[in-house]
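Email to the structure team, subject: Acyl-CoA synthetase model.

Hi all, the expression group asked for a predicted structure before they design truncation constructs. Nothing fancy, just the tokens so they can compare against earlier work. One-line instruction: predict Acyl-CoA synthetase, return tokens.
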Amino acid sequence: MEQLNWSYLGDHARAHPERLAVINGTTGASMTYAELEERSNQLAHYLHELGLRPGDHIAMVLENNMRCFEIGWAAQRAGLLLTPVNRFLTPDEAAYIIADSTSKAVISSWAMRDLAAGLNDRMPDCPVRLMVDGVIEGWSAYEDAVAPCPTAPLKHEALGALMLYSSGTTGRPKGIIRAQHSHDVRDYVDPFRRKLYGAYGFFDGMIYLSTAPLYHSAPLAWALQTAAIGGTTVFMEKFDAAESLALIERYRVTHSQWVPTMFVRLLKLTEPERRAHDLSSMRFAVHAAAPCPRDVKLGMIEWWGPIIHEYYGATEGCGMTQIDSAEYLSHPGSVGRATLGVIHICDDDGNELPTGESGLIYFERDRVPFQYHNDPEKTRAACHPIHPTWTAVGDMGYVDGDGYLYLTDRKTFMIISGGVNIYPQAIEDALVTHPKVQDAGVIGVPDAEMGESVKAIIEPAPGIAPTAELAEELVAYLRGKVARYMIPRSVAFIDTMPRLPTGKLYKQALRDKFGKEPSA
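Reply from the structure team: attached below.
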């Protein structure tokens, strides 16, 4: 294995200042290491001059914008906690995160001006409001603010961190503070991630394609950490399946990260579209963030070969599993074996369950690796009732005899029908493989006899009409693919599935819209 030069931005800026650190794959705009170094230093100085010190919080409300990278690195070298805010939130939702994070400064953009305008009267405790690429009333021009600041590093740099919020798919998002391994900016990448990225073949000069929103944990962290090894990040402003293939060929991408819904979109491309580009430069295609339907995963391995890798974890950093293509073919459906922490599968009372039996997934560590911001009760609730350093985030699953973990679903998504536990994920995984289905979600709805029954919500593929005949066709399609008791009793249609760009399905929206409908 190649010895990696784990460093930080300043070292690479001095070693190869003209190398491209970031490329906007949508527009072709780029930023060199020297430019990223200088711009991040200027913002770090600006925030320091305002009185922000290590441990203080800032937020950014941005689309996938080149400025995300300098803001991220400014926070990392000024000891600040940076909270990226989901650009698709309402003003009330975004203001809640900014207030809850106690951010003293927020950075937005002209592209996000409508959301930013909605925040004007909702952020009384956040006086510093900067906007890039333009300005609206109540905000100051980012470019003007940082222009007079020094381009050299702060005299005393300190390691900052991301304080990310959970996706809030079932309720209010929670701020997550990961335990820091160091306060030295040169220790930006922790020892476990050095091992992880080494296993994924990271190297000085690699080209990394970032396909997902930069407000999400893994895309932003991986993009920032690519600069810690001297690589180039190519980011997409918005995911498009065919364009992602074109970018791989254009920039000779070596590494990429995906979510399963992107794989679904890729596999639904026509054969000429799939074969139109040279993808031979790719060495590692990594996916995570949501469970991947088995047929989708197998289809990607067949197409791209044994470069498909998967990891399972959570923003909280409780633990992690990994699996490569060869392991997946021998353990289809698995998300791998533990590479961080020890897995325990437990029932609702915290009792460990036998091999092969599904329950709540806990990871055992030597300490609790995170805390929920301003919410010690939620932090305690994530811990095992007997073993305080075992933590869980609500995922259900089981482990086979070889130690491979299989996800069944989120605990909060489980349907109980006639006393039987039904995990919607298995039904959703089967439905999305139908050629007339673009996306699918499954929830429980009231049932006078069974308590709950299964309801499927379908986003039809482009050009497909949402008809009663299609509903019957999909129910028939499921027979033999899932157990009889899992067959939906009713089917509804939706124009666009409320799926977050990170790949997670926003089930609360489905419950709000369809959850009170009785079964047909």
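Residues 221 and 249 are 24 Å apart (CA to CA). The mean pLDDT is 92. Ping us if the truncation boundaries need rechecking.
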